Amino acid sequence: MKVPDIDLEALEEFKKKNFKDRLEFIDKYVESLKKKSNKKWSSEQKDLMDE
Hints:
Elements: H1 8-35, H2 38-50
């Protein structure tokens, strides 16, 4: 069985970018939560659960 060629540097860069993208998403999501009232957020969650 042949071991596949893996570019470890490219993989490391991909992991770093993925981590950065996740942190940016979390920041944006938190900001959107802060702007919504609890009632509106609860209503949206209910709608998701009912689908």
